[in-house]
Amino acid sequence: MSLRVTSPSAELVRRGRESLDFARSQMPVLDAIQAEAAVNRPLEGHRISGCIHLTKETGVLVELLLAAGAEVAWTGGDEVSTQDDVAAALADQGVRVFGRRGITTRQVEEAAAEALTAFPSGPTLVLDNGSRLIETVLGDRDRFPELLAATEKTTEGSRRVREWNRQGRLDFPVVTVNDIVTKWEVDNTYGTGQSTVDGILRATGALIAGKRFVVVGFGHVGRGVALRAAGLGARVIVTCRSATTAVQARLAGYEVLPLRQAAAVADILCTATGYPDVVRGHHLDLLPSGAVLCNTGHSVTEINLAELQARTEEVREVRPHVRRHVLAGGRYVDLLSGGGLVNLDAAEGNPSEVMDVTFANQALAALRLGRDAAALQPGLHEVSGEQDQEVARRKLVAMGIDYDGTE
After folding, report:
1. Binding-site entries for NAD(+)
2. What is the value of pTM for the model shown?
3. Which residues does the annotation place in the binding site?
4. Is the pLDDT assigned to residue 405 strictly greater than 90?
């Protein structure tokens, strides 16, 4: 059965329209880019398949692509991130939307496959999050002969794209919209850091002050989570595999421990690595009774849920977004958002003001590909430092902030 959103109710469309309008009011940079693109229509004739969390902010990006002339198919690419009202409002505008909130991991894959094959001749451009669609294309290139280029916006997805490029597998250009200051620092550190702690608070109602808050991973997302948790008075402990990031965490004032030691004292444990199976059964065996376990890294893979289930004697839904796993001897851990992305499930994802910057970069990359994809060499391409600076300048203007560079 297809996962396409069809015939949404008028009420759901109305609510989605309100959500999109609210997000747009907080995204002046993206709104200005859309106004320019609506005149020039650089995506006229293009067919875009996208796989990025379908929040109200992503919806504003999709509306920009429509205004620029593209046909669009979209999926959220995650079990919990799709906002159904936004999906309804976009479907009402003719976007081919696949998936809904609360689907299974298998259905996530099915929805992604439908989005990628939504057009009879396939997409001409792909906008990806985690490189799911790009991987599918590389595995069956003959099915997508008209694909010209793609973008990838995540740290883990960019890592995979770089590996494929080293292997010589990329026979079309892929622009990574991740390794720039306005993405790493604004989105990952300040955006995801805040929205993750927001999700934990909404789900649990817990007092953070005084708690031993273990952050697994100290990349840009992990740093943001640690910063916000510490700001609320948590005793932050960082675990990481890299010596350089361990030094950074220590110099930032956090305790640094191996995960096996940190797990044994954790009141709250949050993964933020982008890698699968970071928390395994032997870590779960060490968690104190009552520990809160959550993930803000990538999909539902960072916590090994099969090994948690194997140790579980009873599961209770004690609050929305909180599943209590009762283990041997009456010990229990509270799993948030089913191990999925807590900031997108229990909260609303990153603030609109943050995604204004990220999606401005995404939009500019897509618009450039609409004009120039045929002229780009196959392989990996980075967003230029000039574009990074331009997006930052636009954001400062929107915020009414002067700085020395404006003189």
Report:
1. 219-224, 343
2. 0.92
3. 219-224, 343
4. no
